């Protein structure tokens, strides 16, 4: 009966992606894929890895966007 919790987790993730705006998903998908694969190989915890990877990927994308904004702002200032 491992299919039950897995299906529930997939439905929850699908709903989370459906309700999130595309601008808020930056980094989440790539992080979820990497985290899911890592979690799978680290003891069959793919869903936990995907959620963690999504959070880390989102944080890194946000940091990267802030750095790019700072660089653009520095380039505009004479």
Please provide the count of β strands. Answer: 0
Our count of helices gives 3
Mean pLDDT: 80
Strand content bin: under 5%
Shape call: elongated
Task: Label the structural class.
Answer: mainly alpha
Biggest sheet, open or closed, and with what strands and sense?
A: none
Helix content: over 70%
Terminal CA distance:
64 Å
**From the structure provided, what is the oligomeric state, counting identical versus distinct chains?**
single chain
- H and E order: HHH
Question: What is the total domain count?
Answer: 1
Question: How big is the Rg?
Answer: 16 Å
Describe it.
The chain has three helices and no strands. By secondary structure, it is an all-alpha fold. It has one domain. The protein is elongated. The N and C termini lie far apart (64 Å). This is Glycine zipper 2TM domain-containing protein. Keywords: Signal. Residues 1-25 form the signal peptide.
Question: Outline of this structure?
Answer:
Keywords: Signal. The protein has 78 residues and is an all-alpha fold.
Please give the structural blueprint.
Blueprint: H1 3-19, H2 28-41, H3 46-76
Organism: Paraburkholderia dilworthii
Keywords: Signal
Protein name: Glycine zipper 2TM domain-containing protein
């Amino acid at each position: 009966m491992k299919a039950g919790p897995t299906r529930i987790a997939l439905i929850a993730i699908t709903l989370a992606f459906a309700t999130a705006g595309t601008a808020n998903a930056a980094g989440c998908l790539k992080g979820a894929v990497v985290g899911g694969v890592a979690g799978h190989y680290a003891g069959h915890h793919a869903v936990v890895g995907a959620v963690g990877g999504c959070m880390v990927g989102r944080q890194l994308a946000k940091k990267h966007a802030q750095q790019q904004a700072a660089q653009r702002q520095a380039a505009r200032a004479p």
